Amino acid sequence: MGFFSWYTQDTGRSISNSYSKVPTFKVHMVDNKGEIWTEHNYEGYGVFGGKDYYELVAEMNGLGSDRDAGINLAFKDSPSGTNPNAIFPNLVEDPYVWIYTSESPDSCRLQGYFYSDEDEEYEYEDDDWNDDEGDSTQYDD
Fold first, then answer.
1. HEC secondary structure over 28-73
2. Which 3 state secondary structure label does DSSP give 75?
3. Of 82, 93, 104, 119, whose CB count within 10 A is highest?
4. What is the pTM of this model?
């Protein structure tokens, strides 16, 4: 199985994992009730602050704590994992400014790992970096 990764919904940054050459950063997972799980060193498998993203998807949609049910719901009729009939946790850098939305964070096709040398320098000129139409963003961490 590969890595799971997304773009943060407030800053649009790819959530890198601890195995990549791009440093990790603090990410907060927020549910529809305002509960927050904070991850300081994302490992790439969907767990933020000890809570599994897809387990939380299942819980938020009334399916219990079944991770497989959460994965199936997220990807039902949507290869990108953005089922419009489900509600999702939010992945953000600043949960205290962010206003919850039921939409799924965008998946990162680089899986938080497969960055080019330019990505390591935080200069995202590459169309593969963000799914937006050729937008580029630079971050100075």
1. EEECCCCCEEEECCCCCCCEECCEEHHHHHHHHCCCCCCHHHHHHH
2. helix
3. 104
4. 0.80
Residues 6+ apart with CB under 8 A from 5: 14, 15, 16, 17, 44, 107, 108, 110, 111, 112, 113
Predicted confidence (pLDDT) per residue in 104-135, tens digit: 999 887 777 668 765 544 433 333 434 333 33
- pLDDT of 26-37, one tens digit each? 999 999 999 999
Number of other CB atoms surrounding residue 64 within 10 Å: 10
* Both structure tokens of 21: 């050459």
